[in-house]
Amino acid sequence: MAIADAAGLPAAVCLASASLHEVKLAETALDSLFISGMPEKLIGDKAYDSDQLDENLLKKHGVELIAPHRRNRTKPKTQDGRKLRRYKRRWKAGRLFAWLQNFRRLVVRYERHADNFLAFLLLACSVILFRFILR
Q1: What is the rounded CA–CA span in Å between residue 133 and residue 131?
Q2: pLDDT tens sequence across 31-85
Q3: Which of 82, 85, 129, 132 is the 20 to 30 Å CA partner of 118?
Q4: CB count, 10 Å around CB of 18?
Q5: How far apart are CA 108 and CA 94, in angstroms?
Q6: Residue 66: strand pairing partners
């Protein structure tokens, strides 16, 4: 799980089992931020369409969740078109994952132990941040 800032730079990464749904990991990822301060808005894809997650993020962290509704949603809609205009910039978060794919050790996952893999993931994030600073 990774969180990118508005420029697509890494703001948080966390490692968890692949069997958990992303809705359950969103708060864990926010707790592992390595930047100061909480983001005001969090943009996610349709998998993050959860009223409970929306309420928890707003109450506990003060973060507004922007995610389009799933097609099979039965409850009334909570997002309007004005908020979803920001969703168009979600490609910047995808760019972070493309940058992480440049590190072969992360793509193939040579590391058996999760701690070692997380260490290499954090190292890759720091390299990305240093490259941005040195521009």
Answers
A1: 5
A2: 888 888 888 888 888 888 888 888 898 899 898 888 887 777 777 777 766 677 7
A3: 132
A4: 4
A5: 19
A6: 43
Cβ contacts of 14 within 8 Å, gap of 6 or more: 1, 2, 25, 28, 29, 31, 32
pTM: 0.81
* Alpha-carbon separation of residue 107 from 10, 49, 55, 121 (angstroms): 17, 28, 34, 10
Q: Which residues of 58-86 are buried (b: 16+ CB within 10 A; e: fewer)?
A: eeebebebbbbeeeeeeeeeeeeeebeee
